Amino acid sequence: MSPADLRRGSFHFFPKKAPTMTTREELQAKYRAERDKRIRPEGAGQYITPTGRFAELFADTYAEPVARDAVTDDVEVAIVGAGFSGLVTGARLKQAGITDVRLIDRAGDVGGVWYWNRYPGAMCDTAAMVYLPLLEETGTMPSAKYVPGYEIFAHAQKIATTFSLYDNALLSTGINSITWEEDSKRWRFLTDRGDNFTAKFIALGTGPIAKPHLPGISGLEEFQGEMFHTSRWNYNYTGGDRYGAPMTKLGDKKVGIIGTGATGIQCVPPLARSAGELFVFQRTPSSIDVRNNHAIDPEWFATLPSGWQNEWLMNFTTLQTGGFTNEDLVKDGWTDISQRIRDRVVALVTERGEYTLEIQQEAYEASDDEKMEEIRARVETIVKDRETAEHLKPWYRQLCKRPCFHDEYLQAYNAPTVHLVDTDGQGVERIDATGAWVGGVHYDLDCLVLASGFEVGNEHTKESGFPIRGRDQLLTERWANGMETLHGLHVNGFPNMFIIGISQAANLVSNIPHNFLEAGATIASIVRHAHDTGASITEADPEAQAEWVALIESAGRSFFGNTECTPGYYNNEGKAMGRKEHMNSAGYPEGAVAYFTMMQQWRESGEFEGILFA
Ligand code: NDP
Q1: Of 79-88, 343-352, 387-396, 482-491, where does mean pLDDT reach its minimum?
Q2: Mean pLDDT of 556-571
Q3: Is 182 strand, coil or helix?
Q4: What does the mean pLDDT of the chain come to?
């Protein structure tokens, strides 16, 4: 790796170099032991897809479907999914003068994950200045550095209003199938509302973590108390609301929560304040770094120059992926570890006069050890009960799991009504009609909250998605051995179809909407070009696609593929990745900044290299 690679930020790997310090050896042995006891042979197969009785848990209880006639028209662009991917792409199309755009979503409104996830305490861990897309275009100032879920949902609605994306949208509408019709050069949509319409172009914004899944705990279906997943919070049962009103109906209730990931740690503080007793069932502790939220100063915000958000986006992405900039505009936990690694690399290169891979590894290990020591020390300073504090300490490298940031989560354990039930990496043993079993002890519960997360991956990489049939194949058949695309956006054999995602593209996980902003701009430029030239077909050139696929395939495994990490969805639950898993999750090998830069040049060249227009 060269210093240029370093600047591009290509160090998402886990070094293989043998540790040299005794303490590091001990630490690694501890990490390995903690990991090994969590490995499950079923890997991601341990989770339950909510079908049958569990399907009821995932109905849209937030909105009644609006009565409407079935639609049988033809639109220029149909966008599947009205979360940020669909909204941003719709906005980019409108900005490019393409007005005939239709959003389709199962949900009763736009917003995607921010429509569904209304659990108490929901907020975004990524700074709003970069997370909320199109702030300048919508004239929006975030209320704080990190904003609550309801503000993000309101912003999604504002994008839809600003760019007239509610016009023509089909909400509370599930897609049954999408089929390419060669004669008319159109995609035909059939939906669960009886719609039968066509679209010249389709864009798939179905989200990387859109489908909830349940923990594979025996007896889950036997529980007779109230049970819901965090993405369908039942405020009728708990009282309170998503805006922070206390959950007054929980005062005499014993509440259990399973899951201590990014969602679980956000719900625990409000639950701790409201529940008669709260039992937090923990399999693996999250790393909880400081939040340090603060309001945004309107006077300062007003001084930002036009174009500021794009600068902030690239600044955050550059620093977060290990590159260099003069200034850290966002300054938070996401950029902190990268900053430490960079500083160490610079110091070591200066000291030794050359850059080597060993320097990179040394800097990475030392920075991560230091960061994780701080995170474990923070637990001790906050949590008063020593045994509880010990169980809350994470023993893995920070990026093995999704890092979390909170200033009330650890504090919640100091309340006498809050009980950490640590399962020593094994998870809850069994559920029965009245509660949960751990270590042979039964915990009586009135209410069980499942903060068990989501299926990871593109809906169309799995059989569970709705069928999309291209010229002669289903997309799931085409991708039976893993995704194959050009730029993460196009698939040969599926003309006029775009994927709005992160895989085989920038793969920037710390700020997902940034991926969508760039994808939306690319899609808009292609549709505009087809519109202007009268092309009825745009399609990936098979040779260009094969080259891109080979590039993605040749990429080293990112931290997503690391089997030395404690299991989680970042690393395929600790199971080695085959080609399919690698192709479904890998990004552009040079990193997010290089991908965004390359795609911008690609768009601006106006040559659309690799795309065939007919
Ligand atoms: P996760 O998949 O991150 O967490 C699931 C949790 O359930 C884990 O703690 C897991 O334990 C636990 N679990 C699973 N099975 C069992 C079991 N049998 N017994 C006990 N515990 C079990 O889901 P989340 O909903 O927390 O987060 C999903 C993603 O959503 C995040 O990573 C993030 O990307 C996104 N998110 C983003 C937010 C933001 O700020 N932007 C906020 C919230 C979520 P284990 O760790 O051992 O596997």
Answers
A1: 343-352
A2: 68
A3: coil
A4: 92
C-alpha–C-alpha distance, residues 577 and 563, integer Å: 8
Look at ligand 1, atom 18, and give the residue with the nearest C-alpha. 427
Dihedral over alpha carbons 388, 391, 397, 398 (to 10 degrees): -40
Average pLDDT of the residues in 109-126: 97
Q: What percent of the chain has pLDDT over 90?
A: 78
Residue predicted with more confidence, 470 or 54: 470
> Does the Cβ of 427 fall within 6 Å of ligand 1?
yes
Please, are residues 467 and 80 in contact by the beta-carbon 8 Å criterion? no
**Is residue 82 scored above 90 in pLDDT?**
yes
Q: Residue 572: how many CA atoms within 13 Å on its side-chain side?
A: 21
What DSSP assignment string belongs to 296-344? PPHHHHHTPPTTHHHHHHHHHHHHHTT---S--SS-SHHHHHHHHHHHH
pLDDT one-digit tens code per residue, 322-351: 888 889 999 888 888 888 888 999 999 999
Tell me which of 338 and 445 has the higher pLDDT: 445
Closest residue to atom 4 of ligand 1, CA basis: 261
Residue with tokens 């009821």: 56
Q: CA separation (Å) from 276 to 171, 227, 255, 272, 446?
A: 38, 17, 8, 8, 10
pLDDT band of residue 13 (cuts 50, 70, 90) is very low
Looking from the CA of 194 toward its CB, the CA atoms found within 13 Å total 4
Spatial separation of the C-alpha atoms in residues 413 and 473, rounded to whole Å: 53
| pLDDT at position 23 | 82
* Cα–Cα dist 530/598, whole Å: 21
406: Cβ contacts below 8 Å, ≥ 6 apart: 265, 266, 269, 288, 291
Please report where in the chains the tokens 């990004």 appear, as a residue.
587
Count the residues in the chain.
614
Pairing of strands 538-540, 611-613: antiparallel
Give the type of residue at 422: D
Distance CA(420)–CA(391), nearest Å, equals 8
Cβ-based neighbour number of residue 386 at 10 Å:
9
8 A C-beta contact, residue 538 and residue 613: yes
CATH no. for 74-210+456-613: 3.50.50.60
Query: Are 228 and 449 contacting, i.e. CB atoms less than 8 angstroms apart?
Result: yes
Q: How far is CA 511 from CA 216, 220, 229, 331, 508, in A?
A: 29, 34, 24, 14, 6
Cα–Cα distance measured from residue 111 to residue 158, given in angstroms and rounded to the nearest whole number: 10
Tokens of 366: 């030392």
Given ligand 1 and candidates 452, 509, 559, which is best to mutate, with the most ligand atoms within 8 Å of its CB?
A: 452
Question: Ligand 1 within 6 A of 571 CB?
Answer: no
Chain centroid to CA 154: how far?
Answer: 19
Q: How far does the centroid of ligand 1 lie from the alpha carbon of residue 460, in Å?
A: 22
pLDDT in tens, 510-521: 999 999 999 999
DSSP letter, residue 555: S
